Amino acid sequence: MPKPKKRIKLSNKNKFLAGVCGGIAEYFNIDPTFVRIACVLLFLIPPISFVTKIPIILVYIVCWVIFPSE
């Protein structure tokens, strides 16, 4: 029987604000601290290309709305 597809979900265990970073970390089996540090760095580093000009806060809010709860 095939395995069910793995989905990114909001984390209830590794929740700091909404559980977005914790959910991403659980999906990739990494420490949520690394994902949180990456988000902060993306927020602080000046935009390099068009893709990074989208504010990370907006991306976080969109993920909060789109990701299902655990």
Describe what this molecule looks like in 3D.
With 70 residues, this protein is mainly alpha-helical. 47% of the residues lie in helices and 0% in strands. Helix 1 crosses helix 2.
Quick overview of this protein structure:
By secondary structure, the chain is mainly alpha-helical.
Strand and helix layout:
Blueprint: H1 20-28, H2 32-44, H3 56-66
Descriptors:
mainly alpha, 70 residues, 47% helix
Q: What level of helicity do the residues show?
A: 40-55%
Number of strands: 0
Largest sheet: none
Radius of gyration, CA atoms, in whole angstroms: 13 Å
| Class from helix and strand fractions | mainly alpha
Order of helices and strands: HHH
Strand content: under 5%
| Dominant shape | elongated
Mean pLDDT: 81
Low-confidence stretches: none
